[in-house]
Amino acid sequence: MFQIRDARIEDATRLLEIYSYYVEDTAITFEYDVPSVEEFEDRIKNISAKYPYIVLEDDGVIYGYAYAGTFKARAAYDKSCELTIYLDKDSKKKGYGRALYESLEKRLLEMGIVNLYACIGYPVVEDEYLNRNSEQFHAHLGFSKIGTFYKCGYKFGRWYNMIWMEKLIGNHGLKSERIDLWEDDEYSYPLAFGFKPNMVTYLHNDGQKHPCMVVIPGGGYCVVSPTEGEIVAKKFYKMGYNAFVVTYTTNILFKEPLMDQPMKDVSRAIRLIRKDADKYGIYTDKVAICGFSAGAHLSGSVSVHFDDVKDDNDELNTVSNRPDAAILCYPVITSGEFAHRDSFNALIGEEAGADKLEYFSLEKQVTKNTPPTFLWHTATDDLVPVQNSLLYDEALTKAGVRHALHVFSFGHHGLGLGDEDWANHRFGEPYTYEQTFKTVEAVKNNEVEVSDEKREELLRDFAEVKYWPDVTYPEIVMWPELADAFLRTVL
User: Fold this and answer.
1) Which of 90, 192, 131 is nearest to 434 (CA)?
2) Domain locations in the chain?
């Protein structure tokens, strides 16, 4: 069983033995010459005076070490530091690296460090001296690539890039709270089972105004998916937005069509946000909405039908529910040939008439007052065909609405951010499943009648949150930056 302990000066010889390989045989470090034992002892002493310097020991033998160092020598950077790790070249794939970094991260958080950075050699083309394993290792631990310096390191007669990766372990003044959208006497969906639509805030607590991002996860109008909730809000938070995740009414039992209830939920959220703009630190004319799949249909519905959704609260009814811009991610749009039929069945019922199908077929409802819209889809979407976005793009063009459409070449439905955090299920808390969990409990307790087949499905698939392994999708990870550039142009 291995242990992690503080490095000691007498460890220098073994640590230098580990490090020498990386100096002499790799471009992982850009150092040319192996330092002396005395120099290495000084490094351990000097670093340990301010930051943790730790080693991993297994059966009395040191197999790796890691330490934190000064990021920049200015007082304003004191809550940030740079991390370094080296493992014995024959001791990889044993979990040593993760154990060292997790121990180091815990120590640093206790010290008040909130930003972690890693400076990593990166090949222009992978060769015998340098591959991309270090980037992948850091990405699996929650680091994100934030910058590249091109051909800034020269070793073995070759140029190498250098990348910076970042992990934020503190909240940086993030203010998060849940806000119910309705009072008890205002909300009456019959199959809520005690659930109340709500929004969760992700706010910069800095006294400044920010643009606003209202995140509407998908889920076929059956659930509100955690994979497109907190993780997306925090992405836009880091980009300077004050963000809100709306958990709206859904219909997993297909018993009581939702009709306009989800639109009422989202409209209420937008009105509350605008009404209390000073409290939430947002610009009232920079309220964007970002929806995914059926959540994108809901976002699009509010974008085209905002005038139809009145609020029974007289004060709120005077506040606009029209988004200033919309981001629609692999959206459900049409009730026609390319429809995602289950979404419409949950929303308006299997026996919906032509008028309802027409009303919620969004490509038929676009007007010149529809807000500027950013669309993205994958050409290979296997659940909601890309034709949904193409139809909406055509309608926006005809109405003269400013918009952008990005069709990426590959990827299945529901990709969310498609990055390492997404692929490794770092979605945040699954609070968007509240109504789903309450529904499952109601089924367990025989509070609602369902078929044996439906009961089995609910208990099997929805009694807890289940995620399936996936990989990153490098082509689509750029979409938040593309959307941000679009919003900064139109808002």
Assistant:
1) 192
2) 2-168, 174-490
**CATH numeric code, 2-168:** 3.40.630.30
- How is 409-432 classified by DSSP, letter by letter? S---S--TT-SHHHHTT-----GG
**Encoding tokens for residue 359?**
């009303």
Whether 224 contacts 247, CB under 8 Å:
yes
Q: How far does Cα 365 stand from its chain's mean position?
A: 30
Q: State pLDDT tens for residues 95-151.
A: 999 999 999 999 999 999 999 999 999 999 999 999 999 999 999 999 999 999 999
The Cα–Cα gap between 104 and 108 comes to: 6
Instruction: Show the beta-strand stretches assigned E in 293-364.
Output: 325-329
Helices and strands of the chain, counted as H and E runs = 16, 16
pTM of the model: 0.91
How far apart (Å, rounded) are the C-alpha atoms in residues 230 and 233?
5
Token readout for 138 is: 């850091």
Distance from C-alpha of 328 to C-alpha of 479, rounded to nearest angstrom? 11
Q: Bridge-partner residues for 6, per DSSP?
A: 54
Q: Nearest Cα to 267, choosing from 201, 316, 334?
A: 316
In angstroms, rounded to a whole number, what is the distance separating the alpha carbons of residues 268 and 281? 18
* Contact indicator for 244, 202 with CB cutoff of 8 Å: yes
Rounded to whole angstroms, the Cα distance separating 44 from 444 reads 59
Architecture of domain 174-490: 3-Layer(aba) Sandwich (3.40)
What is d(CA 190, CA 312) in angstroms, rounded to the nearest whole number? 19
Contact predicate 388/405, CB 8 Å: no
